[in-house]
Amino acid sequence: MYAPKDKPEPLIPVRLDLDSSFTFSCEKEMACFTKCCKDVNIMLTPYDIIQMKHALGLASDEFLFLYSAPSIIEGTELPVPVLKTDSQAKTCPFLLDSGCSIYNTRPLACRYYPLGAGIFHNSDAFSEERFFALISEPHCLGHSLGKERVVRDWLKDQGIEQYEKANAGWVELILKRKSLGPFVNIPEKTLQMFFMACYNIDSFRRFVFESRFLDVYVVPDERQREIAGNDLALLELGMEWLKTTLLGGGEIGIRQHISEVVD
Ligand code: SF4
Ligand code: SF4
Predict the structure, then answer these.
(1) Less packed terminus of the chain by CB within 10 Å, N or C?
(2) Mean pLDDT to the nearest integer, 89-103
């Protein structure tokens, strides 16, 4: 799911797990430095946008306007923003000669690289299994000059765990949507709600506090105070809300019929 680029990748056909090892290094002194930031197509996750818009001092809708382009999550009709690049070289807008200008808040896909990651649904439909694969591109010298790494340590060193935790509800929604199959259609209005709650968090906050949302859904006062100033807490509410509206399985309480708030 978190393959860094959505075009076909030269994945090494070896399935890795958390305890698998691989060989890799990435240093500024390498001749290939920043080549991986050109010709990119990077899918942005909800937590990517929260982290980047804070670092850039932007509201989420400003960030989306300036730095994203619309795309669709493979195998679904669910929308997802991808990082907007210049049309010629497809270079990342955050790339400087000195390297990544937003390194501490770089997207999840950049953190994973050179790993790709996915989730298998087991046949019992109740359990899932994470897996990883190694991406080896000809321009990247990190494999041949690398030292031995363990997948579990890589995820920790790259700060991936907090992204996975924050994005868990979003991933669950995508997997659930995929499991429904291609013959279930999601109304356009629901897709717009999905986009807002997942990626445009400041707009979702206005929706919660300025529409009839709180008349329809049960959000205790303490939680209302928390989501007023905390994007991560608001994202969690948004994912619960989408589970309710999209899949009918969320934990958020409803006071009145759902159509009264989405109409
Ligand atoms: S080693 Fe690979 S990931 Fe590191 S700068 Fe070079 S191309 Fe990019
Ligand atoms: S966000 Fe940073 S690491 Fe990721 S592609 Fe852009 S410049 Fe490279």
Answers:
(1) C
(2) 94
Do residues 244 and 258 make contact, with C-beta atoms less than 8 angstroms apart? yes
pLDDT for 22: 94
Q: How many CA atoms lie within 13 A of 215 on its CB side?
A: 9
pLDDT for 62: 98
Query: What residue's CA is closest to ligand 1, atom 7?
Result: 140
User: Quick check: 68 and 84 in contact, CB under 8 A?
Assistant: yes
For every residue of 123-145, DSSP letters joined together read TTSS-EEEEEEEE--TT-TTTTT
CB burial readout 32-51, b (16+ within 10 A) else e? eebebbeebbbbbbbbbbbb
> What number of other Cβ atoms are within 10 A of residue 143's Cβ?
16
What's the CA-to-centroid distance between 107 and ligand 2, angstroms? Answer: 7
Q: For residue 26, which ligand has an atom nearest its CA?
A: 1
pLDDT number for residue 1: 41
Confidence of residue 3 (pLDDT cuts 50, 70, 90): very low
The number of helices, as runs of H, and strands, as runs of E, in the chain is 11, 11
